[in-house]
Design brief:
The protein is α/β, with parallel strands linked by helices. The chain is 47% helix and 10% strand.
Length: 661
């Protein structure tokens, strides 16, 4: 590893090369009456010319952003007009896709240019121009090795591991520069290993020197990642999939997969985020390698279970070869490289809100708990209607380079054009339903009126109810069928009500168990809840136990959370567990965590992510951020530097369940 390059990037010394680009392109483009495709192409050409070739100390993979900002292509008035005519998702620019890096790196952009439209050709020419300027600068600075590589890539197909890595970097850089975001990495070890394998057979690398090259490559993800901000800093989508099976069902995990895990452990940086595909045949050694990263405190790898995911995707209509080739989007959602145009995070349903609506509208009129659950199903149906109705006439700003990077283009979608709906707060909802079943309809120790009044007053009225429902009532995560059955029912209803719906692009809707940022946002939409959660208290992140639940331990959690049929939650949503970092004192703890992950996979879990946290260290970081700049935590589907988060997200991480094994 190059300590000089690592320190240079960590200390942000390369930021001195950045400058603002204060030009109102949107007004210029509007005045000229340019089409959206022309605007995107023109902007890319302008920004490419404005970029200044810069080489950082000891870097082997070049290209770094020197223009801080990307001006919008459209004025505020134009965006307002778009929103009247169309449904605009998030920023309106393309995101959360897995481009066809494999083909482009193999063939080169000269070959891809042949089939590109006029706008794609111009973008490719602009990439060639910037690459040539980098090559000329390399020659002037005596960097002959880099100059030689830039003679070939990305124009022509890569012929070496180094060329392939550099080609990827230029492509990835260009996608960001075009204005796309949450640009994922895809199945890196699958499409990149043949280049490393060939070079090693020629004697060009040892495992040690190959690791150094991977580390250098990983550092390239961290040069500009602070410019790519989602909901919070660190939410940038640079997600890499490793392992799993290929299109024929053969195992992919290889030497490069292992080197990637080692590189992340050595660098301790948040990018790229690693998603490790596993299955019933995955050796314990691979789980242990992953657990070493958990011990390091990176919040990844996230695990995805091929046995559940592939089957679930096939049931939704994905071809088997494509399903086997799945990756995760920016967080956890399952997408298909090169042919997937899915909008995997287009909406979200709050399960606790469903319970809250039925509590206030229906509880007094329901004679039995079964009657109440009929109302729950009806409300989930209503919520699905309302959510899906929003997405008619979806429109994205056309992306000429992304169009080149997807087989068959992306302008009007791809082979798969499915929409993903998150399902949030499942534990809070299940815990609330068991309270209603057990105490209101069961032993009748709490009246309907009293429960509603208690909830509406934040338990200030009928305060005697609070300790019963908050501390005595069963909670999901303790392997108690009495409460877990409600999670099975809710997720099943959610999947049932989305099944068969067709979206405006001819695709389907996929149910998920992930929360994204909604664990805060949806919690603010309702007051207290019947489980004893107070107003203002967040839901658990993703597919996890409630923050107020007293949990026996991680084994009971995985037993509870594998009871639903997770093959029907194919928008993803990982079981999220926090472990006290103090438990990682020896190798035995790593093996125990690895065994826990394997148990979850063997029991039918679809995804899992782990976080090693130190509450005292996080408190210290809040008080003295400068002393803890590299403290990493997992947020919902991505890792971030703790001190760069808003306080509400910091506090949520600190309040989560912390387990030991």
């Amino acid at each position: 590893m190059s300590k000089e390059l690592l320190n240079y990037i960590v200390n942000r010394e390369h930021h001195k090369f950045r400058r603002d680009f204060d030009v109102d392109l949107a007004s210029q483009f509007k005045a000229e009456g340019l089409s959206p495709k022309e605007r995107m192409t023109r902007r890319f050409e302008i920004l490419s010319k404005e970029e200044t070739p810069v080489f950082l100390p000891d870097e082997k993979i070049c290209f770094v952003r020197t223009i801080k900002n990307i001006p919008d292509c459209f004025t505020e008035d134009e965006w307002a007009d778009f929103r009247e005519k169309y449904y605009i998702h998030e920023l309106g620019y393309m995101s959360n896709l897995s481009p066809d890096y494999e083909t482009v790196i193999k063939k080169g952009l000269v070959e891809m240019r042949k089939d590109a439209d006029e706008y794609g050709k111009r973008v490719i020419d602009a990439i060639f121009d910037l690459t040539d300027r980098y090559r000329e600068a390399a020659i002037k600075e005596g960097k002959d090795d880099i100059a030689k590589i830039l003679e070939r890539v990305p124009r022509y197909g890569a012929t070496s591991f180094h060329e392939a890595l550099q080609s990827f970097r230029i492509i990835h850089f260009s996608l960001w520069l075009e204005g796309n975001y949450h640009n994922t990495v895809g199945r890196f070890d699958k499409y990149m290993y043949p280049y490393l394998k060939a070079d090693m057979e020629k004697g060009l690398y040892t495992e040690e020197t190959a690791l150094e090259m991977v580390e250098n490559f990983f550092l390239s993800f961290n040069k500009d990642s602070d410019m790519y901000v989602g909901v919070q800093q660190g939410d940038n989508g640079q997600s890499m999939a490793l392992g799993g099976v290929d299109e024929d069902g053969n195992e992919v995990f290889n030497l490069l997969s292992e080197l990637c895990l080692k590189a992340s452990k050595n660098l301790l940086l948040i990018d790229p985020k690693i998603n490790l595909r596993v299955n019933k045949n995955t050796p314990m050694r691979i789980y242990e390698l992953g657990s070493e990263l958990t011990k390091a405190g990176l919040g990844f790898p996230q695990y995805s279970n091929d046995d559940v995911v592939v089957d679930g995707l096939v049931k939704l209509g994905y071809e088997l070869a494509d399903a086997r080739n799945y990756v995760t989007a920016a967080c956890w959602e399952f997408i298909i490289p090169a042919v997937g145009g899915d909008v995997d995070n287009i909406g979200a349903m709050s399960f606790p809100k469903v319970v809250d609506i039925c509590l206030h509208r229906d509880l007094l009129n329901c004679e039995t708990f079964d009657d109440f659950m009929v109302k729950i199903r009806e409300e989930i149906h209503t919520q699905c209607d309302e959510i899906c109705a929003q997405f008619d006439n979806l429109w994205f700003v056309p992306s000429p380079f992304m169009n080149v990077m997807m087989r068959g283009g992306i302008y009007d979608g791809c082979k798969y054009n499915n929409f993903g709906i998150h399902g949030t707060g499942i534990a809070t909802a299940a815990d609330s339903l068991v309270v209603i079943e057990k105490y209101v309809y069961g032993d009748k120790s709490i009246s309907k009126d009293d429960l509603i009044e208690a909830v509406d007053s934040n338990f200030e009225k009928h305060s005697e109810i609070l300790p019963i429902v908050r501390y005595e009532a069963p909670k999901m995560g303790n392997d108690i069928d009495e409460v877990d059955k409600h999670a099975v029912t809710i997720l099943g209803m959610f999947s049932d009500e989305l099944e068969g719906r067709v979206n405006c692009r001819g695709g389907i809707y996929r149910a998920g168990a992930g929360s994204a940022m909604f664990y805060l946002w949806h919690a603010d939409e309702i007051g207290a809840s019947p489980d004893g959660r107070l107003k203002g208290e967040a839901f658990g992140t993703n597919y996890s136990a409630s923050l107020i639940a007293k949990i026996n331990g991680p084994v009971s959690v995985i037993k509870s959370f594998t009871k639903p049929d997770l093959s029907r939650a194919m928008n993803g949503g990982p079981l999220t567990l926090e472990f006290a970092s103090s438990m990682f004192k020896d190798e035995e703890s790593v093996k125990k965590v690895a065994a826990l992950v394997k148990a979850y996979v063997d029991m039918g879990g679809h995804q899992m992510q782990l976080n090693a946290v130190n509450t005292e260290l996080m408190k210290a970081a809040q008080e003295n951020p400068d002393a803890h700049r590299q403290l990493v935590v997992r947020i919902w589907g991505w890792s971030a530097y703790f001190v760069e988060l808003d306080k509400e997200y910091q506090d949520h991480v600190m309040s989560r369940q912390q387990y030991t094994v």
